[in-house]
Structures
1.
Amino acid sequence: MTGEFEPPPSGLTPDEAAIRLEELGFVNPQASAALTFKRAPSLLSLAGKRGGLLDNRKGNGNLLLEDLAAILVRDYDVESFVSAEKWIYSRPAPGELIDDLARQVDFVVTAVGD
Amino acid sequence: MTGKSAASMEVMDLAYAAGWTDGLPIIPPERDLVNQYIEILGRPADELIGMIPPLLGPATVEIVVANAIMAGCRPEYLPVVFCALEALLDDKLNIGGMQCSTHLSTPLLIINGPVRQELDINCGPNVFGQGWRANATIGRAVKLVLTNVGGARPGETDKATLGQPGKYTFCIGENEEQSPWEPLHVERGFSPTDSTVMVYGSEGPHNINNQMVDNPHDLLDTIASMMANLGSNHPFLMGESLVVLCPEHAAVCADAGWNKRDVKQYLWETARVQLARLRKGGIYGADVDKYNTWSHWIDRTRDDLMVPVCRRAEDITVVVAGGPGRHSAYLPGWSSRSAIRPLNEQSSPSTAKTGAQ
């Protein structure tokens, strides 16, 4: 049991089932998410780059990020890291924090969850 | 399959496959039915109520009505559903965070005012349980919107470790008629003749059984013992919490001359956890310095200090609900704040047709 939504025995995907329902004259109760993300271009290499660590403030988040940073410096030649911390884990990081990090670093690693 | 319900069952299967449901059967939101509900409601179908976190899906009147029909709502319930959604979008509730949390909190709706009688919203016996269509379907409509429009799907964006039954539906009325005090919405500045919906991010009810109590101190000591625990968020994160007093327990306090403020003050002073014990659990374990929502007066170097479950007595909400019997309830929260909205003239059920015509 993965906890993920599993398709019905008929084999219809959720989208296929929704289309079928709409064809039958039912109103789709779901909304298209307005939140979309534009993927930033990938770095070709981490060597010589400056990284950011964004701690979500959950327990051990900082330790996880510090250990990861040590590995990235040792094995991938990251030049250095800048650390930042959200005030509270249950809200998105404020725009100013993100902007400030973006000015200082080439990439950011963040930890989500517990 | 054959039989009168066979076609309905096939639609149920499709709706489940589409991810439209909460796992329970739904009333299929047929286009004609949606249009009829919208006409009765008297609001434009494309009117935007708000963007529902976490994925910020647009909750239009049409989409909300479709979810309300699925939940089993009658047309006259719609204004309460819309009012609840408006309250849910109050930033201090932080519904986006709550929807994604590993915690099992989910919005509880508490309804006040004349709308309770207009729609037969249960405020009395079995108030948190089954049996009343209005309670069941209004609560369910809100939950379906949070999933279908907000995009909080279990195992995906909704990271709840356990969840709880309240995520199907969670809606009560305050038993104002058997309360010795001013009701919740009057406390919050509304007129007794206003109808309101308050939303509170809530765990399930923790029963408080005290059969023989005849004085407020013993009763509230019992309640405080439930509040001062290591398992809920409050001693660690503060925020609002909720006490639901049954009418008989409320009378024990009121008959001794206590008002709601007295009850809250006593609970705030009594429901405390020794700081040393807080190092055993919570979010940060022994590192209590990381809790940045504690009041400044809490000296973290003192392991003997008794830490309250909230920053001030006013953060303990007290309502009266339920029927005969001496069982009250404590409902810990997620540690955000509640939000309350009035049913306005545009959304009042009395201005909408009943749909019986």
Note: Chain B touches chain A through 52 residues (CB under 8 Å).
2.
Amino acid sequence: MSADRRARQLDGAIWRAPTEREVDAELEFHVEMLTRELRAAGLSSEAAGAEVQRRFGDIAQASAAARRAATHRDRSMRLTEHLAALRSDVAHALRLLRRAPGFTIVAVLTLALGIGANSAIFSVVNGVVLKPLGYPEPDRLMFINSQFPTLGFDEFWVSPPEFFEYRERTQAFGEIGAYTTGAVNLMSDGAAPERVNAVALSASMFDVLGVRPMLGRPFTAAEDLPNAESVVVLGYDLWRRAFGGDPTVIGRRVQIQGHPETVVGVMPPGFDLHDAKAQLWRPLGLDPASRENRGSHFLNLVGRLASGASEASARTELRGLLSRWGEVAPGRHAPNDSTHRLQLEPLRDNVIGGVRTALWVLQGAVGLVLLIACANMANLLLARAETRHKEFAIRAALGAGRGHVLRQFLVEGIVLALLGAAVGLALAHWGLRALLALNPESVPRAADIGLDPLVLAFTAGIALLTGAMFGLAPLLHVRERTLSGALREGGTRSTGTAGRARLRNGLAVAEVALAVMLVVGAGLLLRSFWKLTRVDAGFDRSELVTFGLVLPDATYPEPQMRARMLGDLTTRLRQTPGVEEVAAMTGLPPAREVNANDTEFEGIEQQPGGPPQNVDYYQSTTEDYFRTMRIPIVRGRGFTATDVGGPPVVVINETLARTFYPDQDPVGRRLRPPFGDSIPWFTIVGVAADVKQGGVDAKTGTELYFLYDHGPRYVGFAPSELNIVLRSPRSLGALLPAVRQAVGELDRSLPLVQPRTMDEVFGDSLTRQRFLSQLLAIFAGVALLLAAVGTYGILGYMVNERRREIGIRMALGAGRGQVLRMVLRQGLAIAAAGIVLGLVAALALSRVASSLLYGVSPADPLTFVVVAAAIGVVALAACLLPARRATRVDPLVAMQVD
Amino acid sequence: MPAARDSLHGTLDALVLKTLSWGPRHGYAIANWIAETSGDAIRIEEGSLYPALYRLERQGLIIAEWGVSELGRKARFYRLTPAGRRQLRAEVEGFRRFVAAVSPILLTG
């Protein structure tokens, strides 16, 4: 400290800033000297005073200028001093870390795990939940779909007449667009055919989203009509990949589903709609004049609020419209406010969906891991601080105030934390990439996840916070008194030992409790996931292999051609060695798109409050379907070979039987699909057991099975997108070449879409739940490891501290067994306290995440008991090593005074 | 040429630094010494002296300490720092070059 500073500190009592007092004193001196000189030259005191005034100019102004300059000087010099002190503190901290490499590595790794995990999860939370969608003014976009509360459908599609009517009658929305998602076969010149995600959208959608193609143009309303010239807009990635980024692609024709279509535009990079990951944008081709197909719900709507409208005003308007919709569309299927609602919510909320809860749970979990890491760090530093108390005592004697010691601790903590954060960020970056590559469908908006500035700021923030926290923790026991006491003492570190031990034990108990909470959470989710994989989906999925096939219009213009192709294919596949049974169907369980249609049930009148005469899933299959999938027939019979050329028949599922024929035998009754007036009545020949359609954890809907062959004959229509399923004991890899050959011999241009085993199909439908439980299991594992290391460390330290006591006991006759038990007792006491605390906390918190659980209660006793036992075992293992070390203490050595 | 600063500033700073190269002085002594040595041609305004001194202090070219003056009163003495010495050398060198460059033009013929 400069003499000046000290002088300033010792200065007197009148309250002027010390700097100002100093400046005044200096100027006073100058005035005095000048006056003296002038008096010596012969001036009177008045004349001298006048001359001094004249020399200084305006004394008040001069003095003010001098004060300003002095204050500026002081501030600069203080800043320079602080920076120099900081620099020396950082250098000192780094030196200390270099000198204790073991400690540094453990500390940095611990922090890297804790901070890195937090950064990784936060970047997911940021990309998925916090970042706005990539459209202009995204908060003004609303997602609109329908809801059938009495049927249990919370989210359902909208039909084209409803879309047109809403668009015409709304004032709250400036524009509304409609879209569906799907996939198409794409063949670009020369390249192999590939299957590409595509979105069919209304021309108005481009105005709704506010994004224009970066090349070319969007399609016009005229091109969005049923018989218009076929045009398509490419996605950016597809354009670069399949067309080499060639700008002359505009105007070129590409083969989509066997049709030539003209490319009119290319969308900018990153453009997508509702996470469809689409690469092709095609016109919906709806006829605005046609209002007949009211029951055909397959559209999603997105609307942009008009300027001046709000979400609330749009809702109010919608309520009003719903109550009056019957005026526009009399008869069945008009939307109303009770059984058939339209609903809206912000687009982003709908995209994120239920993932929000899961993500915040993950962020909480990873925060717990960080807390455990901090507790470990605090303990580590506490232990280290004790070996440095002499260093601090000397510093205090040399004049370092408590403030200086505080700053030094802070700097050491923050330097460690920043090092850990740097390593942690690297871990987060690679870990995230690996995780997303393994589980691509697990979170929406995966493209938006990355280490962007907000994530970096978050990381720096928690590094500073945690560094300050555990950096200052040792300060709790290095007080001024201790400093002077430490200088005097000769080795008996009795000052504050009891308090320090309490703090360390408390930290250990907290660590164990936090680890217990995480392990319980992971256990519940894992059990939940396990239960999901065991759900009986209604069919036997072992030894089943499946792939998709699309028979496009261009090569199969007549429905009979498709039926014939399918017949030939299934025959050929049945002859493939190893294949026992083959079938084809439109929808692939357990998670498939709803394909609902109004259906007329003979002899059943539509009841006012009863279920609308609509079936959720129309399934078109070959005759071997039930046998191949091993779906039980609970009444009547399934399809047989004689049905193929026979009269029109259908099979219904149990839910349909329960819904529409609760008190009667459905076999023999008739029903009719809505595909035109000349459709014959189909006779029900059997009832099949329910098969999951909307996902493993969703309720089963009503389902109607048609024979594929009857499509061309009775309906004039055969679906072009199919799934082929094979039952075979051979593996997928062994079967694929033969299957490809069989398909290729019939039609070279058809790709096999996503060949998978049925187990894989199942797994893919559970991707989100698996991802979540895997992640949480990893965090729980890390937490457990950290807590075990922490407990081990604390016990080890305690054994070290009580070496002399142990030595005395052994000298007085205590056996090894007794010493072992003594140490174990202390360790297990900590573990027990932590386990109980953790279980109680877990019980309270698991309620929050109950929406993520399936088939498992948040208070599932099995999980809690198993977790308690497992952690008890881990704690025991962690305590054994130090306990064993305690028994090896040599009493003679231990009792020597050091 | 001397460094591109306000030439008034620059000259004053150089004069102060040079004065202090003869030993520590307080503000009044600095002003007096410059006045005497220049034969009263240069008289530093009292109003600009102390802001200049504080500026030099902030820049680390001089350092100050309270002491006792010849007459037994408390006064603040200024001293050159090594950085100040280096800066002074640079200023003097700059001035020499300036004179050497300008003299042949202005002082001949």
Note: Chain B touches chain A through 21 residues (CB under 8 Å).
